[in-house]
Amino acid sequence: MKYLIVLTGIFFHLISLGQITRYKFTIRYEDNNPHKYGIIIINRQEVSTDGNGHGEVNIQNSEATAIVASPNTNIFKIKYPVNFVVNLPKNPSVAIDILLEKAKKIEKPVTPADIARLQKAQEQYLKSKDAQLVKSFEEYNRRLYDSISVLLKTRTFNKEKIIAGRMEFLPQISKTLDHYLNEAKDFKDAFSVMAISLNNKQAYDQLAAATYSYNEIFELINANKSTYEQAISSYWDSKELALKFSNLTEYALEEIHKPYILEINDAFIARLYGCANEKNRKRKKELEAEIAGDIQKHSQSLSKRLGSLGERIAAFLAILKNVNI
């Protein structure tokens, strides 16, 4: 089997002339220790970090995303964002989190075929309905951010503004959460198919495409959750509901994204590479059987967590819809 799975890749922007904005980054390792006094590459620029793992970089205003890379993958590699691409927040004072993983002694190779597959997956995603939907979310979220900012500055709350605010934010919060859940399910389905398709090129391509779709909506929620929390606190006049939303997104991050989505990189990718390069046919079949069984177990556990998330989302949205003014 020559078709290898890679869920991340490096893609380069052309930097256009124009105004710039200075963005903040927080770079840390999996154990939450900061990347002290180190170097990381952001949009092809070397960025130095301080003792707390904080770094800043100027980025063109025309850019909506930034590409993150390791200057030396023999020392550390980027674990999050999974596809090396982060959405830039509307508010540049909001720090962007980057998660690093210290390199293991044995590194799996990244071949030209891997990069080609990733580029193809990105191109397919950008043409998809999912990409257009997320783009519409991003544009609408920018307008919502502006509206809540004006409201907080003027502090002019009245019944009409509260109704208008709820009518703006409730559909957007609902669509965003539902889309995240659907993309996570699609990712789980694409991954679970691998159990019976370890030698099928199309299965790897579908998983790469599902990864891009999932990453985009996850990044969008991560970049806009503070805006949603502030809107809920203001328009629903409830810090408790804002906290419930925060807990909901935290559940998605801590109970689904980290232990199941990111874990695939550590638990399966190296094994798939090893299986692909195994020359002994008998051993290769044994490895395929072991990997297939573990994929099924991982997918089943992820499915249960997604079921729980779906119930939490439905319950939370029902509360928002039924709160009286």
Helix content: 55-70%
Overall pLDDT confidence: 79
| Shape call | globular
> Roughly how many Å is the radius of gyration?
21 Å
Description of the structure:
The chain folds into two domains: 20-107, Immunoglobulin-like (Sandwich); 113-322, no CATH class. β2 and β3 (45-48) form a beta hairpin. The protein contains six helices and eight strands; from the N terminus they run ββββββββαααααα. By secondary structure, it is of the alpha+beta class.
Compact description:
With 325 residues, the protein is α+β, with helices and mostly antiparallel strands.
Any key phrases for this structure?
4-stranded antiparallel β-sheet; 2 domains; Immunoglobulin-like; 325 residues; 4-stranded mixed β-sheet; disordered N terminus; 8 strands; alpha+beta
Topology (elements, then pairings):
Layout: E1 20-29, E2 39-42, E3 45-48, E4 54-60, E5 65-69, E6 76-80, E7 85-87, E8 96-102, H1 112-127, H2 129-154, H3 159-193, H4 201-235, H5 239-276, H6 281-322
Parallel strand pairs: 1-8
Antiparallel strand pairs: 1-4, 2-3, 2-5, 5-7, 6-8
